[in-house]
Design brief:
The complex is a heterotrimer of chains A (411), B (292) and C (340). Helix content of chain A is 40%, strand content 15%. With 411 residues, chain A is α/β, with parallel strands linked by helices. The chains are: A alpha/beta (411), B mainly alpha (292), C mainly alpha (340). Chain C: One of its GO terms (cellular component) is plasma membrane.
Chain lengths: 411, 292, 340
């Protein structure tokens, strides 16, 4: 969406938006240019920032934000004054030293921001979070009722339920999940490995520690699940899996909380499917007591290589954009907002349950991205039966070590 | 038609049936898309039954009729796709002109030079083309942001021309080699300079080659994704990145059909263009100046 | 041609290529010999909406000093080229020593990312290139013989696989070959196997990628040959006819030699493009079954932490690979050139 809204245009938009028109965001000069991903909640934040008067607010919301943000914030002055990031992607900006600590700006302009929204790294505020996300169980209430089973709370129960649904002849492949080779598959591995109580690295170091029984158990469980998935599961990302769901082919699915609203609305599927779509807490696996999922936040940062005036303008505009007035009937269900005044809806039950049940956040480690890529490249070989679990874990370890050595994290 | 190209019936039937099969294979996905662009997403990308895309079961349910123009309305009116179309038009016009200007000059010189460096020049140009474009584009980002070149249409035009220059040079060089040397050399004996010979003798007879090369330059600029998605700011976006933004990483419902409709509606002008230029290719032949 | 006029004729192209291709290649090659500095990692407490955790972070001040001292990073020589994610000399040697016969060695080799990618890349190139040329040639001959009024539409429809933007084209094809899409269902009906799924099998996925490759590139070969056919001398054809040459002989001895420079050209471009195969792998989500060198670069650059040196090394290896692949064609061109 093209959001280069000059102040006049923003004023018009304000009148049109009527309900949000109590805005009072006027900034005396400065430049605001936001880079970020393009899903609806971020669009909402960028549009709200553009309501501010006295500054030009530009935004480049694109799927390629991760490639553009470091380059676009490296120059002096930086092209982008703010990048919207998640807990996985903020580390790249910290590693390259292109974002500034926000403590002074918070003290001056951000007293209203609740403490829980502030992301601190080593005591310094580096970002302000505005929404949370997590992968949890999505299920079809009617199908579970038909086979007479309760909602599964563990992956072991998912396997039992899947067998029952298949045996009853309701669905051939009742289990779904974003298992597309690459990032998605690696993320499923991360979830399941944490669920088994695993640690990715030896504490405090970049030494990888996934090559153990927990890693093997993780892979075995993933493979057991894929027996009940559509045979094409290695090509199904979250879009593909959602499409399977809407076609009524899947009854138990591991899915992002942010997708629940789309699955529950009346577009794209039969009433029997969308009326019976429900979300539950993230699943447990084994006996570790840690849910097999990760918690995510999305938040905004402020660039380092810009004038203090621009930084102040950016901070004010974005602080305004994530203040309670942004929430209205249309935006309320776009995400699980961390903003004051958010009223949870049925679609967000899964994410809230994930937070409540002690799910671990996705690690904010400088070398986590390297492990994520290495896993994504190698796990498919195990699932397709080309090699053993031990071999796959050894391959991940070797691929990670080569990459981490190149990046200087291990010697 | 001359005697030499007349064909016996058996050959004719074989050639025709081969062509018909090819045309079906080539056009089927597009025709399917054309038909499906008037359906809702649930039908067009139906996981339940592919026949839904033909009959429009969900379209009927959601809109009350078997056809809907919602995709077209959304793309052109709501999302202002015409801006992207305008940008693409500009990019294409400039890429084709600049590319052909540089390319014909260079290609001609390379075809006529008998010195060894001409070969090495071609060889290096070819090796330049071997570089994967993703590496090049990600290398551009930092300096372009630094020098404030990022985001503008002209930067993208120049980059596209440069990246495509090896291809253009090779292609035109091959075509120029088919044009007999005597043509321009006799003109030079008559007192023309090299450039005048090129301008007055070669240009008029090289249209088939130039049109074909121009067609590829055009298609490259028109279809490019790797460069345009990385180097253009939102307001200068061309069609392909715009279509990509309709799709998005998290496909927002309905937006996918914007992309499908946009693709269908921009193919129509290309039809007119191809119809026009195929005559140019043939007219180059009837001018009769080219002797193999 | 005089040196000076050659110089002025090629100057615009040269400047463009130097600035936007040659110079970046030099910097990519340089980059591939350097690794990042040793990172100074410190323990920190990170807090956010989900509580606090003990994690690590890069110490910016210490790193800034290191960056100041050596802006390019640490010189590593050929270390990146030989590490496991590239040529993997150490692993290949170990596999050779430990291998239980040649097939076992092959399996170990295919477990290394570079060789796995190379295997698919080479197969793809070897299959798609000749098929594209042959198909393009026959389409050109067939289109050339249709009635004039029909030529425009036939050319347009023949160009469609190339015109429709791959972004959406592959999205639609990806859906079509799904087990429940029209082509996937058609295949199941043809083979009488209701469980057949193209996307689930490595072999079928390879075939599908190659079919797509030929389908997508055939229009290119077709247009080049078609334009070439327009310049075939009809006098020569007719005199060949008078001499009693059959139709096949006329194609063999008159048309083909005339088109030969164009065949060389199409072969060069296609070899190169196919060796850099990338888009279909991403669009068809095929990376579980097939990867290519360009996909490896994309993977290095697309992660949360970008592996610049690794991507640079793979790029250089790609160029070298293409140079080796093209050398026969180039030697031919060199001989042609010398003959002039």
């Amino acid at each position: 969406m093209n959001i280069i809204l000059k102040t006049t245009a923003a004023a018009c938009a304000l009148i049109a938006a009527a309900s949000a028109a109590t805005a009072e965001c006027s900034i005396d000069g400065g430049r605001v240019n936001i880079i970020g991903n393009e899903f609806p909640a971020i669009q909402t934040v960028a549009a709200a920032a553009a309501e501010c008067t006295g500054v030009t607010v530009e935004a480049n919301l694109t799927a390629d934000h991760q490639t553009l943000n470091v380059a676009g914030m490296s120059g002096n002055p930086a092209e982008y004054t703010s990048a919207i990031v998640a807990n996985s992607s903020i580390v790249a900006l910290i590693n390259e030293d292109v974002i500034r600590p926000l403590d002074e700006l918070v003290a001056e302009y951000g007293k209203d921001i609740p403490q829980r929204q502030l992301i601190t790294v080593g005591g310094k505020v580096m970002a302000v979070a505005f929404m949370a996300n997590a992968q949890t169980l999505t299920y079809r209430a009617d199908v579970l009722e038909e086979v007479g089973l309760d909602v599964p709370t563990t992956y072991e129960e998912v396997l039992v339920a899947a067998e029952a649904i298949r045996a009853a002849g309701i669905m051939e492949n009742p289990v779904g999940g974003p298992y597309a080779a690459g990032w998605n598959l690696a993320q499923e591995f991360n979830n399941m490995y944490l669920g088994h109580g695993g640690e990715f690295f030896e504490p405090g170091t970049a030494k990888i520690s996934i090559n153990n029984e927990k890693g093997v158990a993780t892979l075995e469980m993933m493979k057991a699940l894929t027996e009940y998935m559509n045979p094409d599961y290695l090509t199904h990302d979250s879009n593909g899996t959602s499409a399977e769901w809407e076609a009524g082919n899947v009854a138990l699915m591991h899915m992002w909380g942010s997708r629940a609203q789309v699955l529950m609305d009346d577009e794209g599927s039969e009433p029997q499917v969308y009326e019976n779509t429900k979300v539950a807490a993230p699943l447990m696996v084994g006996d570790s007591g840690v849910p097999a999922s990760t918690l995510w936040w999305d938040g905004w940062t402020v660039a380092k290589n810009i004038s203090d005036e621009d930084a102040a303008a950016t901070f004010q505009a974005l602080a305004y954009a994530v203040s309670p007035q942004t929430l209205n009937d249309t935006t309320m269900n776009q995400a699980v907002w961390l903003i004051d005044g958010y009223e949870p809806a049925p679609v967000s039950e899964g994410v809230l349950a994930a937070v409540a049940s002690g799910t671990k956040p996705y690690p904010m480690l400088p070398y986590m991205g390297l492990l994520h890529t290495a896993s994504g490249d190698n796990i498919a070989d195990f699932l397709t039966g080309k090699e053993s679990a031990e071999q796959t874990l050894a391959d991940i370890e070797a691929a990670y070590n080569a990459a981490a050595k190149e990046q200087g994290y291990i010697q | 038609m001359s005697k030499a190209t007349r064909q016996p019936p058996s050959v004719r039937i074989m050639a025709t049936s081969f062509l018909v099969i090819w045309l079906i294979v080539a056009a089927f996905p597009f025709l399917w898309t054309l038909w499906g662009s008037f359906k809702v997403e649930g039908d067009f990308f139906s996981k339940a039954n592919w026949a839904n895309a033909i009959f429009g079961t969900l379209t009927q349910e959601e809109t009350g009729s078997s056809f809907t123009g919602a995709g077209y309305y959304g793309a052109w009116v709501q999302e202002e796709f015409w801006r992207a179309a305008l940008n693409t038009t500009l990019v294409c016009i400039f890429v084709v002109t600049v590319s052909l200007t540089c390319g014909t000059l260079g290609g001609y010189a390379l075809a006529r030079s008998t010195h060894r460096y001409a070969f090495w020049f071609l060889l290096f140009a070819l090796m330049f083309r071997a570089m994967p474009p993703i590496t090049l584009v990600s290398g551009y980002l930092l300096p372009f942001f630094e020098w404030n070149l990022w985001g503008h249409l002209y930067t993208t035009v120049i980059v596209l021309v440069a990246l495509n220059q090896p291809f253009t040079l090779w292609m035109l060089h091959s075509f120029f080699k088919n044009i007999p040397k005597d043509l321009d050399e006799s003109a030079m004996v008559d007192g023309c300079t090299r450039f005048q010979a090129f301008r007055h003798v070669i240009i008029p007879v090289m249209w088939p080659g130039v049109i074909t090369t121009g067609l590829f330059s055009f298609l490259l600029a028109y279809n490019d994704f790797a460069v345009t998605t990385m180097l253009l700011s939102k307001e200068n976006q061309t069609m392909v990145p715009k279509i990509a933004s309709f799709l998005g990483t998290t496909q927002t419902k309905g937006n996918v059909m914007f992309a499908v409709s946009a693709v269908v509606s921009v193919t129509a002008p290309l039809f007119v263009m191809v119809m026009f230029f195929q005559r140019q290719i043939v007219s180059g032949l009837t001018a009769g100046a080219v002797k193999g | 041609m005089k040196h000076s006029s050659f110089f002025w004729f090629v100057l615009p192209s040269t400047l463009l290529m130097l600035a936007f291709i040659a110079f970046p290649i030099v910097s990519v090659v340089t980059q591939s010999f350097y690794t990042a500095h040793e990172q100074v990692v410190v323990q920190v407490e990170n807090c956010g909406p989900f509580g606090c955790t003990q994690e690590t972070s890069v110490d910016q001040e210490a790193t800034a000093a290191l960056r100041e001292a050596e802006p390019m990073g640490e010189f590593a020589g050929f270390e990146i080229y030989t590490d496991r994610n590239h040529l993997a000399f150490g692993e290949v040697a170990a596999a050779w020593v430990n291998a239980d016969g040649l097939p076992d060695f092959g399996r170990s080799l295919m477990n290394l990312p570079f060789y796995k990618a190379l295997a698919f890349t080479l197969t793809y190139t070897a299959v798609v290139t000749p098929l594209t040329i042959i198909l393009g040639f026959f389409i050109a001959i067939a289109v050339n013989s249709v009635a004039r009024a029909m030529k425009g539409p036939t050319i347009f429809f023949s160009l469609l696989p190339m015109i429709v933007t791959p972004l959406v084209g592959s999205l639609i094809l990806f859906w079509m070959v799904d087990a429940r899409g029209i082509l996937g269902a058609g295949l199941q009906w043809l083979t009488d196997d209701p469980n057949l799924s193209v996307k689930a099998s490595t072999g079928l996925m390879w075939i599908m990628l190659m079919v797509y490759g030929v389908w997508h590139a055939a229009p290119f070969a077709f247009v080049v040959f078609y334009a070439g056919l327009q310049t075939v001398n009809t006098d020569t054809l007719e005199s060949a006819m008078v001499d009693g040459a059959t139709r096949w002989e006329r194609i063999r001895f008159v048309v083909l030699p005339h088109l030969f420079p164009l065949v060389t050209f199409v072969a060069l471009i296609q070899l190169m493009d196919n060796f850099r195969v990338f888009e279909p792998i991403v669009s068809f989500q095929a990376s579980a079954h097939a990867t290519s060198l360009s996909y490896a670069i994309y993977n290095d650059l697309g992660g949360e932490t970008r592996l610049l040196s690794s991507a640079a090394a793979t790029s250089v290896l790609t160029i070298i690979g293409i140079a080796i692949l093209l050398s026969p064609v180039l030697v031919r061109t060199w001989r042609d050139f010398d003959r002039k």
